[in-house]
Amino acid sequence: MKSQAGKTRPLLLLFLFVAVSLSLLDLRIVDAQKKRTTPQRAAQPKPTPKPRTALEQMGAPPPVPTLKEKPVQELNPDDIVKVDTTEVMFPVTVRDANGQLVNNLTRNDFRVFEDNTAQPLSDLALRQVPVDVILMVDASSSVANNIDDFRRAAQGFAAKLAADDRISLIKFDDRVELLQDWTKSRFQLQRALNRIEPGMYTRFNDALLLASKEQFGVPSLKSRRAVIVLSDGLDNGQGTTTLEAALQAMIRAQVTAYIVSNTEISRAAKRAELDTLLGGGDASVRFNQVNIDRLRLGLQALDQSEQNLAQLARATGGRLYRPLTFDALESTYAEVADELRHQYALYFTPLNKTRDGSFRRVRVETVNPAYRPQTRVGYYAPKS
């Protein structure tokens, strides 16, 4: 029994040795195959280092500095300065006895009265401020045939304004239309002038009120405000505003109105037509009686409109111009531009501090009685 077991053990050991040897051989073969199938990466050449810039050679930037907070100071209510916001500005035009503009006056040459009470003027009473101007044109039948004359006059007027002055364009007939909002560009104005088209009726009062409220709005001390309107002022009643309401809106917005009225031009045409009709025989006069009455009523309406326009210009501190022909529009608008360039901006702080929204009548005088100052009739006090 022992001899048989002794013979079997060497055989088992030999078998185990052979099995282990084959396993190791298989592992080597597999590892060799993997090495052959795995692609080898080509060696990448190292990039050539770039030369350092002057900024890099200076090294890292210094740390960002931090600001030290200032110590908070306690305020005593008695030390707080109250800012007075009741200052008002009045554009003033001064002419001599011959109607020539006077442009060399100083603060000491003026006297201001509010409700007949003299008001103190500071050293900064007279200041140079730009002007915002609305050019308004009546595009109804009374002006429609002469729009080109207005275009030339408006372009000439704009060319005389200062660089900081602004201008806008409104045309009105049966509608009130803003053709150009505020601009300093003369090119934009010229394009807007080309968009004027004739209409029929005249909403004169509505145009003035909308210009005052929409284009100007609340009063401002940063600029003078002016409206230059070409019209005969004959509102046909198609709108919703009265002339009194339009005037009040202009006073509230502190707008000066320069009226270029074509009433004299229309009056001359109606008179010539009326003279022709009345120059015929009795039969001709009876036949044309309806037209004769129409012309006479038209002349009366022009007279009344002219009085209203004069009152509007006087109350706002402007002027009424009555050119005899449309060819005179260029010289008329040039005269308005000259007045605006030589206008004084007079500032004062009213003694009456009551913020009740009431109307305050203002009068401006000059030390020289030969001079005639011209400004609007007053202003509306602010209301708390």
Offer a quick outline of the entry.
With 384 residues, the protein is an alpha/beta fold.
Describe the structure.
It is built from ten helices and 14 strands. By secondary structure, it is α/β, with parallel strands linked by helices. It has a domain of 218 residues: Rossmann fold, CATH 3.40.50.410.
Keywords for this entry:
6-stranded mixed beta sheet; alpha/beta; 10 helices; about 375 residues; Rossmann fold; 4-stranded antiparallel beta sheet
Overall mean pLDDT stands at 83
Q: Can you identify the CATH class of the domain at 126-343?
A: Alpha Beta
Alpha-beta classification: alpha/beta
Radius of gyration: 45 Å
Major beta sheet, strand line-up: 7-6-5-8-9-10
Give the termini distance in whole angstroms: 132 Å
- State which percent range the strand residues make up: 15-25%
Largest sheet: 6 strands, mixed
Query: Could you name the CATH topology of the domain at 126-343?
Result: Rossmann fold
The CATH architecture term of the domain at 126-343 is: 3-Layer(aba) Sandwich
Number of DSSP E strands: 14
Q: Low-confidence parts, pLDDT < 50 over ≥5 residues?
A: 53-84
The ordered string of helix (H) and strand (E) elements is: HHEEEEEHEEHHEHEHHHEHEEEE
- Name the shape in a single word: globular
Q: Count every helix, treating DSSP H or I runs of 4 or more residues as helices.
A: 10
User: Which range best describes the helical content: under 10%, 10-25%, 25-40%, 40-55%, 55-70% or over 70%?
Assistant: 25-40%
- Could you name the CATH homologous superfamily of the domain at 126-343? von Willebrand factor, type A domain
